[in-house]
Design brief:
Distance between the termini of chain A: 18 Å
Oligomer: heterodimer
Strand content of chain B: 15-25%
Number of helices of chain A: 5
CATH architecture of chain A: 3-Layer(aba) Sandwich
Structural class of chain B: alpha+beta
Strand order of the largest sheet of chain B: 2-4-5-7-6
Largest sheet of chain A: 5 strands, parallel
Number of helices of chain B: 5
Number of strands of chain B: 7
CATH class of the largest domain in chain B: Alpha Beta
Strand content of chain A: 15-25%
Structural class of chain A: alpha/beta
Order of helices and strands of chain B: HHEHEEHEEHEE
Helix content of chain A: 40-55%
Strand order of the largest sheet of chain A: 2-1-3-4-5
Shape of chain A: globular
CATH topology of the largest domain in chain B: Heat Shock Protein 90
CATH superfamily of the largest domain in chain B: Histidine kinase-like ATPase, C-terminal domain
CATH architecture of the largest domain in chain B: 2-Layer Sandwich
Number of domains of chain B: 2
Largest sheet of chain B: 5 strands, mixed
Largest interface: A-B, 18 and 24 residues
Shape of chain B: elongated
CATH superfamily of chain A: Response regulator
CATH topology of chain A: Rossmann fold
Number of strands of chain A: 5
Helix content of chain B: 55-70%
Radius of gyration of chain A: 14 Å
């Protein structure tokens, strides 16, 4: 079975590097982006299965980035990363197709559970596609 | 209701909102430091569990420990600024250094500017005289003017904060560099008349040029 491809999008480089390494140790294929533009370029280059997206990234509003990702490839599951319990943004994110959200500081066990659930949903959506 | 009382009450509400925004920005920033500390400590734990603790791994392990120490120090500096910011409200009239007060304000608002990739550049006069004024109200005015500039600037721009001395007055100048945009309407923006009124109360004056430059002149003593 191929590795789950995860894209981490957050402008806090130290945070993304440490989290990326922790996920890699758990056999995920992880890439990181520090801005929305960088993330979109990486998606274009090799679409991930799951994106962990900080809602407060510089360059483009998090919700706008989410909408763009979903337009580019609706099958990518997005887990929003938020510093606070920003209920309004979370609700808007879910309305715009985000799968879930997780709060900073991140609990690695909780994050992995959410990534795996996102993969189950992705797989079940894929099976429902005509011709699959 | 007495209109003067209403004005005072409005000002108090706007001031409270400003304090709320500063605290929100501060907690957001501290949460980021905590997130890095937590992931770094978690990574150390993972590496130890995997048995990666030999001499050849010590370079990476030390790097992680230094990163944790660095984040704790950054949080510590921010806590110090927030503490000083909170104490600015102790007295309505205090003697203080404008550069120090702007330094802490800048540290607490940088996050908002970074969201739009706007850099805040400080150009402070080296030997600023102390002034006697209301430090918290002055920070409120500077913050509001800064916030307005951030709102009206396009991404990848710059705001310069300059201080200086002109005879018996001190000068605070905020200058925007970059493309001006039609700022999104924000219910929390402070009307310019309010800022004008506060600066007048502090014995100074404020002027605006081309939507790019805000100049505040304040007396050394607000008597």
């Amino acid at each position: 079975m191929s590795q789950t491809k995860v894209l981490l999008v957050d402008d806090e480089v130290e945070f993304t590097l440490a989290l990326a390494e922790r996920l890699q140790l758990r056999k995920y294929d992880v890439r990181t982006a520090g801005s929305a533009l960088e993330a979109l370029a990486l998606i274009h280059d090799r679409p991930p299965d799951v994106i962990i997206l900080d809602l407060k990234i510089p360059g483009m509003d998090g919700i706008e980035t989410l909408k763009t990702i979903k337009t580019l490839d609706p099958s990518i599951e997005v887990i929003m990363l938020t510093g606070h319990g920003d209920a309004e943004s979370v609700e808007e994110g879910i309305k715009n197709g985000a799968f879930e959200y997780i709060m900073k500081p991140v609990d690695i066990g909780e994050l992995i559970t959410k990534i795996e659930k996102a993969m189950v949903k992705r797989e079940s959506d894929r099976r429902r596609e005509p011709g699959v | 209701m007495n209109p003067e009382y209403r004005d005072e009450e409005n000002l108090r509400l706007l001031h409270l909102r400003f304090i709320g925004k500063i605290i929100a920005g501060f907690t957001h920033e501290v949460k980021n430091y905590l997130a890095i500390i937590k992931e770094s400590a978690g990574l150390m734990e993972d590496l130890i569990k995997l048995g990666r603790t030999s001499a050849s791994d010590s370079g990476q392990n030390l790097e992680i420990i230094h990163l944790i120490e660095e984040q704790i120090e950054k949080a510590n500096v921010l806590f110090r600024y927030l503490n000083r910011f909170a104490h600015r409200m102790d007295d309505q009239l205090a003697t203080f250094n404008i550069n120090e007060s702007l330094e802490e304000l800048t540290a607490l608002v940088t996050r908002f500017a970074n969201q739009k990739r706007i850099t805040i550049e400080k150009d402070f006069h080296e030997s600023m005289p102390l002034i006697s004024s209301n430090p918290s109200l002055l920070q409120f005015v500077v913050y509001s003017a800064l916030e307005e500039k951030i709102r009206n600037l396009d991404k990848n721009s710059k705001i310069a904060i300059q201080t200086g001395v002109d005879e018996n007055r001190v000068r605070i100048r905020l200058v925007s560099e970059g493309n001006l945009i039609e700022g999104e309407g924000d219910a929390t923006s402070i009307p310019y008349e309010v800022l004008e009124k506060i600066i007048k109360q502090l014995g100074g004056n404020i002027s605006e040029k081309n939507g790019r430059e805000t100049l505040m002149m304040l007396p050394l003593t607000n008597s």
